[in-house]
Design goal:
Elements lengths: L2 H28 L6 E2 L10 H9 L10 H19 L14 H13 L4 E6 L10 E2 L3 E8 L2 H4 L5 H27 L4 E4 L8 H7 L4 E2 L5 E2 L7 E8 L15 H8 L1 H5 L5 E7 L5 E4 L1 H10 L5 H5 L1 H4 L2 H10 L4
Amino acid sequence: MKLGVRIKKIFYRRFMKPSIEKIYRKEEALTEKAGVITANNLSPVRFDIPLHIIDFAERGNKNNLMNRSTILPMLSNVRNINKSIDSLKKNENRKKVEIDDVFLENLKEFCMDQGLASIGFSKLPRHLIFKNKAVLFENAIVLVMEMDKDRIALAPHRKTVKMIMQTYNKLGIAANKIAAYLRKNGYAAQASHPLGGIVLYPPLAKDAGLGWFGRHGLLITPEFGPRVRLAAVFTNIANLPYHSKNSHSWIKDYCATCGICIKKCPPLAIKEQAIQQKNGLITHIDGEICFPYFVQNYGCTICVKVCPFSTLSYDKLHKTTIKKGFN
């Protein structure tokens, strides 16, 4: 075995894996706290991608998602997930529960200053909380960050997966900063990191009016299609401006007539008909087919790359859908 491969395996096994397992223990310990909101019988089990990535990384495939270019952002991701949990003790004595219009605009401006593409607000349904995870507040600020279009166009590629891990890192840092900003102004907050997370993000973002999800299982936004990553900050602010309607529901009709992500998926993991996963989720993705290919081919990302919403005008696609007889 080459020395570099051996060192990398030791790093994954002796440092990265224990660090992530420690985070999972902290997350599960939070469910024992009084007053937290936990999953219900409809909630899915989270597919813990980081641990599965490490298992594959230890096999030494040169096109692995976890490679030299992704180690540093992954280390930062681990550090910031820890920070999102450890900082919860700073919520003590944050008793303010309502905002006025001035602070709401300041909050939106602060979020945009962190490099976000957009934000939305939603009440958190319990069934979106992963089993064995807990949320402190049902009021969600959903965060959206764009992924670089040119790097997505290269997928699957080392530069693409490096950019994706960097986006996870930037968004995780932003979530922690927004939670700290809320605490500084007298509110309680809990940041949920984009890598893994404690809730299922795409339907939460849909509830916030930020887009709709396609058959590739990803949120499709009007600005960037599926070229985004998602996170959330949960807060005790009770009067956030929640969306009552979603103007993007036509996307499901377009997806029903498109199917390019199904045709172009290299391992044929995206199915025409929805299937039920072992964790209870109903999706068009067969995770047991998708994930091994995903990990061993620079995070794949072909479904994002080929999705028409990644490259074409949202309005143009909407008009095309209307012409086909959908609303």
